[in-house]
């Protein structure tokens, strides 16, 4: 079905893959993994025949379907007169079957609704259903559990186990990868290779761990050898003869070659850490919402919602898709005006906001321009901070629009580092992040001393932040956080 032989790919001065080979047979379910920015979405473009490898051969047999992380401008969706004709243009399903599928993904809309008026998350769900119903020979899913609550994730997992054709999935949901795949394709950015592992995700992690431990030892041994040769070079400086000069040149050449051949250590081995700055002083209750109500047309989203956030406390905002979580956050931020109710903000309140839809970004700006627009720091201070998030050298001149979802998330968190916020409002901060990045950001947030209101469907992330209270929508109730009860909350 898919055969890659010694493929290489790159653009400008950046090499993404080198001499990589793999094969995927008909009916296999494959997990495509790798850190954010490693080239997973790029490989999908090659498989969709939108681009070609710079070297090697890539043979693809059959019709390819694709669902991206987020659906922005799908011409089929924009022109569709209703949801029914968009998700099932060939009329393969009965209407009741379509409604069951919509409800499973928490799309509480009528089949006659025009899809172009829906939110980004709902559009992505419709695109997923369209691809599932079409049943292409090869289906590519880029983070299919993004924007889904727990029930939606369960439905997707059941679907994956029954899909009759070839399926390739990018996902940071470990349970999804572990239970439903036959093999793993892993993009290893340190050696620019696509590696093939038979078996599930757990088996891949075990083999990968052994390989990386060997890589780490080799790296450390090579570093020791370089240090030894440098010391020899200093001793040889006293040799002023022509023979001594040649010997020094030979040693320096060996040092340079060893440095060039040193692999880039994966983040797991590099122990990358960062800390958020201390929050600015603020009063005991920096922000409170009283009796907030909001409707869009005939649909009531929020009704008499009240919440006071105390200095330094963490609150988890829970509720199914469509419960009004993002709307409530935007009202707190002052981006949407409530129909009724009052928002009281301390004059010293400084909110750091992360949105999973990245609506605060200008996609035409470069990474560097985006950072410079929020802080007055010299380039010498900006570069090290961006480097912590793997935005190195020439990459800071990339446009924000060219970044993957995970890279946009990393940039968002980098911006939080550069400002002294006393309240963080985070709307699904782990949506696009690989497992390692999730852990790194979780550790930074755990030590943050300011107040925090966050939405997350990642249980490990919520438990790691240990909120003092949870707010449930649409019930508009507040409870004390009890970790053992996490599975009982409406998420």
Q: Using the alpha-carbon principal axes, give the shape.
A: globular
| Amino-to-carboxy terminus distance | 38 Å
Radius of gyration: 25 Å
Counting DSSP H or I runs of 4 or more residues, the number of helices is: 16
Flag low-confidence runs: none
**How much helix, percentage-wise, in residues?**
25-40%
Structural class: alpha/beta
Q: Mind describing the biggest β-sheet?
A: 6 strands, mixed
Report the mean per-residue pLDDT as an integer: 83
Question: Strand content of the residues, in percent?
Answer: 15-25%
Number of strands: 18
Which strand order spans the largest sheet, edge to edge or round the barrel? 5-6-7-3-8-9
Describe it for me?
With 491 residues, this protein is α/β, with parallel strands linked by helices. 37% of the residues lie in helices and 23% in strands. The protein contains 16 helices and 18 strands. The chain has helices at 40-47, 75-79, 83-87, 95-104, 120-134, 150-162, 174-180, 201-236, 242-261, 267-270, 325-333, 367-372, 379-388, 405-417, 435-446, 459-465; strands at residues 2-11, 14-24, 29-33, 55-60, 64-67, 138-142, 166-170, 183-188, 193-198, 287-296, 299-309, 314-318, 340-345, 351-355, 423-427, 451-455, 469-472, 477-480. The strands form four sheets. It has a six-stranded mixed sheet, sandwiched between helices. A six-stranded mixed sheet has the order 14-15-16-12-17-18, with helices on both faces. The chain has a three-stranded antiparallel sheet with strand order 2-1-4, with no helix packed on it. Strand 17 and strand 18 (477-480) form a beta hairpin. Helix 8 runs antiparallel to helix 9. The longest helix is centred in the middle third of the chain and has 36 residues, at 201-236. The protein is globular and about 90 Å long. The mean pLDDT is 83.
């Amino acid at each position: 079905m898919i055969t890659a032989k010694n493929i290489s790919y790159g653009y400008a001065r950046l090499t993404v893959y080198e001499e990589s080979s793999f094969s995927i047979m008909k009916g296999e379910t494959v997990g495509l993994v790798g850190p954010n920015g490693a080239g997973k979405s790029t490989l999908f473009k090659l498989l969709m025949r939108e681009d070609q490898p710079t070297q090697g051969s890539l043979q693809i047999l059959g019709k390819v379907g694709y669902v991206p992380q987020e659906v922005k401008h799908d011409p089929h969706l924009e022109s569709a007169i209703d949801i029914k004709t968009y998700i099932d243009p060939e009329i393969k399903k009965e209407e009741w079957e379509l409604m069951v599928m919509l409800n499973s993904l928490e799309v509480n809309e009528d089949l006659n609704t025009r899809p172009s008026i829906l939110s980004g998350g709902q559009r992505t769900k419709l695109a997923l259903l369209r691809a599932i119903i079409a049943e292409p020979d090869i289906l590519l899913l880029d983070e299919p559990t993004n924007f889904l609550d727990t029930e939606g994730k369960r439905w997707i997992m059941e679907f994956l186990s029954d899909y009759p054709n070839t399926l390739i999935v990018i996902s940071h949901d470990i349970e999804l990868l572990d239970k439903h795949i036959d093999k793993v394709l892993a993009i290893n950015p340190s050696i620019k290779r696509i590696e093939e592992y038979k078996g599930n995700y757990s088996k891949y992690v075990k083999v990968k761990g052994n390989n990386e431990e060997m890589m780490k030892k080799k790296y450390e041994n090579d570093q020791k050898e370089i240090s030894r040769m440098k010391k020899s070079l200093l001793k040889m400086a006293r040799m002023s003869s022509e023979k001594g000069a040649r010997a020094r040149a030979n040693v320096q050449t060996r040092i340079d070659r060893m440095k060039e051949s040193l692999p880039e250590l994966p983040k797991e081995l590099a122990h990358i850490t960062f800390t958020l700055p201390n929050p600015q002083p603020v009063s005991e209750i920096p922000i409170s919402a009283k009796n907030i109500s909001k409707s869009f047309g005939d649909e009531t989203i929020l009704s008499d919602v009240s919440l006071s956030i105390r200095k330094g406390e963490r609150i988890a905002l829970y509720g199914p898709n469509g419960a009004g979580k993002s709307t409530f956050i935007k009202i707190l931020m002052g981006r949407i005006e409530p129909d009724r109710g009052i928002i009281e903000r301390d004059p010293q309140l400084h909110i750091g906001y992360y949105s999973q839809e990245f609506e605060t970004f200008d996609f035409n700006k470069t990474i560097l321009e985006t950072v410079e627009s929020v802080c007055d720091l010299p380039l010498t201070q900006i570069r090290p901070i961006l480097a912590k998030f793997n935005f190195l050298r020439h990459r800071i001149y990339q446009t924000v629009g060219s970044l993957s979802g995970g890279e946009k998330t990393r940039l968002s968190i980098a911006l939080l580092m550069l400002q002294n916020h006393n309240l963080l409002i985070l709307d699904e901060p782990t949506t696009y992040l690989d497992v390692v990045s999730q852990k790194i950001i979780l550790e930074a947030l755990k030590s943050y001393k300011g107040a925090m209101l966050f939405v997350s469907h990642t249980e490990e992330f919520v438990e790691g932040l240990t909120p003092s209270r949870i707010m449930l929508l649409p019930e508009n109730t507040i409870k004390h956080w009890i970790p053992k009860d996490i599975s009982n909350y409406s998420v």
